[in-house]
Amino acid sequence: MTQTIPLRVEATQKALDLIDALRAEHGDVLFHQSGGCCDGSSPMCFAVGDYIVGDDDVKLGEVGGAPFYMSPSQFEYWRHTHLTLDVVPGRGGMFSLENGREVRFHIRSRLFTEAETQALDAAAA
């Protein structure tokens, strides 16, 4: 019996709708979560080509066809969590494409179950 590998990141319909709107304006987009202070603690959305993904950055998956990356140090903290990209009222990060729309991307998280962790560990081996 094969185990299904759980997704590390997913998106709500609100997030998918905003990704589509941003893609219509800016072309292909990507997400990066650095875990730094201020804007860096929120998921940031960039036009592809406007942000250089680091060689050590971890690709968690894709949301709405947009790759989602995390800095290696942040991944060490969050490697055992499932992330859901959502949209909430507020102001986006200064350089994030949703800035000025009175909404911002937001991460909701939960710990992976023991079975999900085992499946992820087996896939990485």
Task: Describe this protein's structure.
The chain is an alpha/beta fold. The protein is 26% helix and 33% strand. It has 3 helices and 7 strands; from the N terminus they run E-H-E-E-E-E-H-E-E-H. A hairpin with a 2-residue loop joins strand 4 and strand 5.
In short:
The protein is 26% helix and 33% strand. It has 125 residues and is of the alpha/beta class.
Oligomer: single chain
Strand content: 25-35%
The main β sheet shows up as: 4 strands, mixed
Report, as a whole number of angstroms, the end-to-end distance.
Answer: 18 Å
Integer-rounded radius of gyration: 15 Å
Name some characteristics of this structure.
single chain, 125 residues, alpha/beta, four-stranded mixed beta sheet, three-stranded mixed beta sheet, 26% helix
